[in-house]
Amino acid sequence: xxxxxxxxxxxxxxxxxxxxxxxxxxxxxxxxxxxxxxxxxxxxxxxxxxxxxxxxxxxxxxxxxxxxxxxxxxxxxxxxxxxxxxxxxxxxxxxxxxxxxxxxxxxxxxxxxxxxxxxxxxxxxxxxxxxxxxxxxxxxxxxxxxxxxxxxxxxxxxxxxxxxxxxxxxxxxxxxxxxxxxxxxxxxxxxxxxxxxxxxxxxxxxxxxxxxxxxxxxxxxxxxxxxxxxxxxxxxxxxxxxxxxxxxxxxxxxxxxxxxxxxxxxxxxxxxxxxxxxxxxxxxxxxxxxxxxxxxxxxxxxxxxxxxxxxxxxxxxxxxxxxxxxxxxxxxxxxxxxxxxxxxxxxxxxxxxxxxxxxxxxxxxxxxxxxxxxxxxxxxxxxxxxxxxxxxxxxxxxxxxxxxxxxxxxxxxxxxxxxxxxxxxxxxxxxxxxxxxxxxxxxxxxxxxxxxxxxxxxxxxxxxxxxxxxxxxxxxxxxxxxxxxxx
Length: 487
What we know:
Blueprint: H1 17-26, H2 31-49, E1 52-55, H3 57-73, E2 84-88, H4 115-122, E3 126-131, H5 165-172, E4 178-183, H6 189-195, E5 198-201, E6 221-226, H7 229-239, H8 257-261, E7 269-273, H9 283-298, E8 302-306, H10 314-329, H11 348-359, H12 362-375, H13 381-401, E9 407-411, H14 427-432, H15 438-443, E10 446-454, E11 460-467, H16 472-485
Parallel strand pairs: 2-3, 2-4, 7-8, 7-9
Antiparallel strand pairs: 1-3, 4-6, 5-6, 5-10, 9-11, 10-11
Helix pairs in contact: 2-3, 5-6, 9-16, 10-12, 10-13
C-alpha cells in the first residue's frame, strides 16, 4: 500500500460501506483479507500520524472469519458485515487498554464493552483497535493526549481537530472505513471539518453513553465518522436506540436514516443565523459556506436569514457547565482502584495528591480547577446556576427557530485546520475554536458536519447542518445535498 502521495498528504480515496458489503456478499472481497489490508495500512502510516494507541487484532480476525463463513453459506449479512472500524479511546472495549488519552488510566483494561461497541460488532463490524484522542476528550486540537498529538492526514504539520481528531484522521487516511468518536462541545464535528470527512452529532440520548468514560455527562454524546453522508447515516442506524443501561437513553423509535437521506432536500426550509457569520470568520471559510448555501438553493431548498442572539454567551456557558461536570466526574480517578498510582505515596493523602498531579495533563487540571471553583460555596449561584439558566435560553432559542425552518446551516469552525503548536500557549484562543459547535451541544439538538469545499491551499472546510431533537433524518437530507454539489 502507498503511504502518501507526492504532495505529502496521507489522504486516500475512501471505500464505502455499501461497496465493501456487496463485495463480501458476492465473495469478491474476503473480510479476512480486508482486515489484513487495513492492518498493513495502519503499520505503514501510524508512525507518522499517531492515530492508533492499541490494536485488537485477535478479536478482529475472529470477527472477520465469522463474516466470511456467513457469506460463504449465502446467509443474509448484517448492516456492517466485515467493515473495519476504529474506536475512540474514551469508549471501553473488553480486554483492550482504555486510556482516555491519559496517563492516569495507564494499564487499565475494562472487563466489558460499551453499548456502542457491542452494537457495532453485532452488526458485523470488525474492530481494528483503539484510537488516540485529547485527554479525557478535553481539547480542540488532539494535542493534549498523554501519548502524543495526532497529525492531520491532509497536512501532517496541522492539527486534525479535537478531541476526536484520531477518529477523523483514521477515516481520512483510510486507516478505518468508519470510526466512533464522542462530542461534548464539538469534538466530532470540528475534527470532521478539519480532516474533510463526515461527522454526526446525534440528539442527546439517541445513542447510549454506557461504557463511555465521562467528561461532562449532560453534554457527552457518541457518534460516527464516515467518508460520506450515507455511510454515516447507516452507522447511526446501527448505534441509535434505547439502552436500559443508560438512564438518559431515548426510547423513541429509530428511523432508517440511510433511506431517509435518499429523499433529497427539495422543499426544505434552511435557516442561516447572522451570528455565525460575524467578525472572526476566516474569509475562505465564509466563501466556501456561502457557496454551499447557494448549492442548497439550487437543490430546491428555501433559504432565509434567522437570528440566534444568545450565541454570544455560548462559550462562557459551555466552559462553566462542562468544567463543573468534569470536576465531579474526574474525582473518581484517585490511584486507588485502577490506573496510575504515584510511587510517592507514603500515606493516603500523598497518594491522592501525587497520583492525580502526575497522572493528569495540564488541560485536564485547568478544567478541573475551573469547574471546582464554579461549584464552590459562594460561587455556585453566580457561575454554574447562571450558566444553566443561559443554557435553557439557548435551547429555547433553537426550538423557536425550528418552528420557522427545518434545518440550520453554519460553518463548523471559524478557521481552517491550524498548525501544530499554534494555539497551545493560548487556551482562550483554543476554546474560541468551538464557538460554532458548543451551541448545539448545550441545546441537545442534532447535527451533521459535511465537507463543503476547501481553501486556496487545499485545507478542508466543513458545513454544520443542525436539526431539532430526533430530526437526524432532516440533517442527513441537507448534508447529502451539500455533498452532491461537491462532486
